[in-house]
Specification:
- There is one protein chain.
- It contains 6 helices and 11 strands.
- β5 (82-85) and β6 form a beta hairpin.
- The chain has 3 domains: 4-78, no CATH class; 82-128, no CATH class; 135-242, Metalloproteases ("zincins"), catalytic domain (Zincin-like).
- α4 (192-204) crosses α5.
- The longest helix has 27 residues, at 130-156.
- The chain is globular.
- It is an alpha/beta fold.
- The relative contact order is 0.08.
- It starts with a strand and ends with a helix.
Length: 243
């Protein structure tokens, strides 16, 4: 049976996520669902009861979330024909060539050039397809984020075994026990100082594989503006992950 909750004037489905390693109960609000997570062995009725007990908090958060979603929709309308790179919306400039077989995106002098063949029916005109845009972002992220990891490694002396640019759905980055640092390609959408914070954060996990006071002390030593970065991520993560 599907479980839904009434929030103000709308009904949202409740999605249950149960994990073996999780000890506490958590609620996350997505644009179209309430997600409750908890230990794998916990009866589902206890998860539903937890949601009911947190309804006042959920309603308040939902109100703020809807305001953010309205603002995100306004930004998208305002910035049609532009894409987000390093925290700034950059205009896409269409360019045509009858000699190319595949459309392409390139970035230079703070402009994005979209080149396509107007004579080919399989080429989307004026604006790139989402798959091409995603590939463009990932290529740019691989180049620039890898360079920034190298820069911060030289500054901190913290050297990862490997750097991987990934398509994580909820995480900005991670550090494995083998020393591999994985970064979300969406960091290329964020201001450079924010992506640098995530890089420093993950590099510090090479020394402290936890979030202990010593870990945060090390992050603050190398990145004093961490509170500003954390606040920015709280305010903008939902917007970035929706793009």
């Amino acid at each position: 049976m599907k479980y839904q909750v009434q929030i103000n004037h709308e009904q949202l489905p409740v999605t249950i996520v149960q994990r073996r390693g999780q000890k506490n109960l958590r609620i996350r609000l997505k644009p179209h669902a309430v997600v409750v997570s908890g230990p794998a062995n916990l009866p589902k009725k206890e998860l539903f009861s937890f949601v009911e007990a947190q309804m006042d908090w959920i309603k308040k958060r939902r109100g703020r979330q809807l305001e953010r979603l309205k603002e995100m929709d306004r930004k998208k309308r305002e910035n049609q024909g532009k894409i987000l790179i390093r925290g700034t919306y950059v205009r896409i400039i269409p360019d045509t060539s009858v000699w190319i077989r595949k459309p392409s995106l390139s970035f230079s002098e703070n402009k994005v050039w979209y080149t396509y063949n107007p004579d080919r029916e399989d080429h989307q005109k004026e604006t790139p397809e989402p798959s091409l845009l995603s590939s463009f972002y990932q290529t740019l992220a691989t180049k620039e984020l890898t360079e920034h990891v190298r820069k911060w490694s030289e500054i901190t002396g913290l050297i990862p075994g490997r750097v991987s640019i990934r398509n994580q759905k909820t995480k900005w980055g991670s550090c494995s026990s083998k020393g591999t640092i994985s970064l979300n390609w969406r960091l290329i959408l964020c201001p450079v100082e924010i992506s640098d914070y995530i890089i420093v954060h993950e590099l510090c996990h090479l020394k402290h594989f936890n979030h202990s006071p010593d870990f945060w002390k090390m992050v603050a030593e190398w990145y004093p503006e961490l509170q500003h970065a954390k606040k920015w991520l709280r305010l903008h993560s939902e917007e970035i992950f929706s793009l």
